[in-house]
Amino acid sequence: MSWIGVLGFWGLLVGGVHLYYLAMGSGFIFCYVLVSWMSGRTSKIKFDYRLNGGLVLSVLLPIAIILLISHLTDSVHDRPMAPYGFYVYHATIESVFLPHYGAATTFLSGLFKLSINWEGRAFVGTLALFFIAGFLALQFQNLIRKSQLGFHMISDMRPIIGASVLMLLFSMCLPFEWGLQFIPEIITPLKQFRALGRFSWIFFYVINIAAATYFYRLLQDVSGSKYTVLRPAGYMIIILIWLFDAGSFYLNHGPVSIVRNDKLENTSQEYLDRFANLNIKPNEFQAIFSLPLVAVRTDKMTFEKNLSAHNEAMKCAFHTGLPILQSSASRPSLSQTLSSIQLISSSYIAKKRLLDMDQRPLLMLYTVGSELREAERGILRQGELFWEDQYIQLYRLPLEAFRDSISYLANTYEASLHDSSTVDISGKLRCIPDCEGVIFRSFDDQPLRTKALSGKSSYYSKLKSMIVLDTTLSTQRDAPMEASFWIYIDPEFSGMPSYEYSFGFEKNQLTSEGRIETWDLTEIYNHWVRVSIPLKKTAYHKIIVYGGKTTIDNLMIKSSNQTVFVNEEPQNLYNNYVLP
After folding, report:
1. What pLDDT does residue 109 have?
2. How many CB atoms lie within 10 A of CB 498?
3. Beta-carbon contacts of residue 53 (< 8 Å; ≥ 6 apart)
4. Are residues 569 and 464 in the same domain?
5. Per-residue burial over 425-451, b = 16 or more CB atoms within 10 Å of its CB, e = otherwise
6. Could you list the residue range(s) of the whole structural domain that residue 51 is in?
7. Residues 107 and 225 occupy one common structural domain
8. Which of 402, 431, 452 is where one domain is finished?
9. Dihedral sign, Cα of residue 82, residue 85, residue 86, residue 88
10. Is residue 259 part of a domain?
């Protein structure tokens, strides 16, 4: 039973490194116990309740301890509950049993449409393929001849191999993809492991150990006969096969993976020297703000098209000790990440992140030549450049760069209530100079919901698609028209909805702009993101939102030269922005 304690300690140790390791080891042991129990019911092998009970205990205790530590020490309570990828990042038959590198991949891709996700790549290797092919051939022969030929030389490994096969099926998202999607909804911790393909690693190691064991014992038996020369030749062939696989893998992946990473060099004084030469101290700044902005790993809003500035900011943070405003941690706080993205929202949205800051400026880092959004370019222009080379620029950025116009807009709204020149529609909408062509839907006529941007309710649909707009618009204005609405960033579901805008002069002859994703929009208020669609100068317009279990609120259509205020208790709106 001493091994039980060793396993428990090992689970606690590797689980503290990464939860995937704990899940892999625990899942494998659970599957081993299950296979052993099933074997005991179908054969004469006695199931050892004491031993297997100890194995289960060695798994449960580390899980309980790590979950308890996490619960007691985690200060964040709004991490993503349904990370994206459970039904995407999994292994397939091709990713496990076919090579996925070099000339073999090109050849096989020409013959078949391979489905190989990078998270599911776990090619077992040539020797394991020979072993598996031989095993299947013997099983087929047993079925035809009703014989009992088999791999008796590794009969002691059958529970281990069986457990690895169960883990392989799990890594392929089976049986969940067979219409059993309700299981992860009930056992919600399953969804936290979005890259199921990684669990195929267990099968990779087990099947190769089984193959090596089988061929070794087979050659040992052969050496006892008159064909003893086959023994060294067999060993040499096996070693050559391993060398071929390892060499092919290295030649195709090694040069790309083995590169020098200077971001966390603890001997470098690169940034400290720059500051010292300018007589600047790092503590003059309160944090690092890099452009282009990066925000990843929430599985909701994602900004990762250009990581150059963020990567350089990590080196700067390591040297100076300053924190980074952007987020790139695994499963970060959703509200904290959204407040970071909000820094590049328009001036119509108050920046919540400023509430966590003092009055010191930010150290803004920009990688030369990087493409920026319009809001990012505006922030960059407000910075004071104090150092640059051909790769990066360092700025002193005052917090005034993030000022908003909320107070001004609120005062403008109050003034409109006493201005006879504004147009009043039923006491709810006030328009400047008029309300021609203005459409506003608050969705308060929908069933009451707690998730509402403003007003009493919002529009919710479980369907994969929901029609937001499907109508003919009639207006005499020359100014461009805009349709806007808000989508709820729901932490209970993975991913973000997309939308499609179609237009034309006839309802049955529409032109589509294609699906457009919403995960990189910047206009964020609380847990809502604003979608803005410039409307074409046509008669008919249609907007469809795709996603399923989606909530939207406040659809507004107006022209660019109209100002529209909405009295929506408990908040007012300015051009479909909330006035707190």
Report:
1. 61
2. 16
3. none
4. yes
5. eeeebbbbeebebbbbbbbbebeeeee
6. 1-73
7. yes
8. 402
9. positive
10. no
In this structure, what token pair is assigned to residue 373?
A: 């959004």
Q: Please classify residue 108 by burial: count the beta carbons closer than 10 Å to its beta carbon, then call 0-12 exposed, 13-18 middle and 19+ buried.
A: middle
Are 198 and 169 in contact, with CB atoms under 8 Å apart?
Answer: no
Average pLDDT (149-174) is: 87
Domain co-membership, 293 together with 394: yes
**Residue count of the chain:** 580
The beta strand positions in 268-354, using DSSP E, are 288-291
Q: How many CB atoms lie within 10 A of CB 211?
A: 23
Find the mean pLDDT for residues 62-75: 90
- What is the pLDDT confidence band of residue 289, given thresholds at 50, 70 and 90? very high
Largest pairwise CA distance in the chain: 111
Q: Which residues contact 27 (CB under 8 A, 6 or more apart)?
A: 167, 170, 199, 202
What pLDDT digit, counting tens, does each position of 452-474 carry?
998 889 999 999 999 999 999 87
Q: Which two tokens stand for residue 75?
A: 């200060």
Say if CB 299 and CB 81 are below 8 A apart.
no
Mean pLDDT (the chain) is 87
Lowest mean pLDDT among 149-153, 378-382, 471-475, 520-524: 149-153
Q: What is the pTM of this model?
A: 0.83
When divided into structural domains, the chain yields a total of: 4
Is 569 inside a domain boundary?
Answer: yes
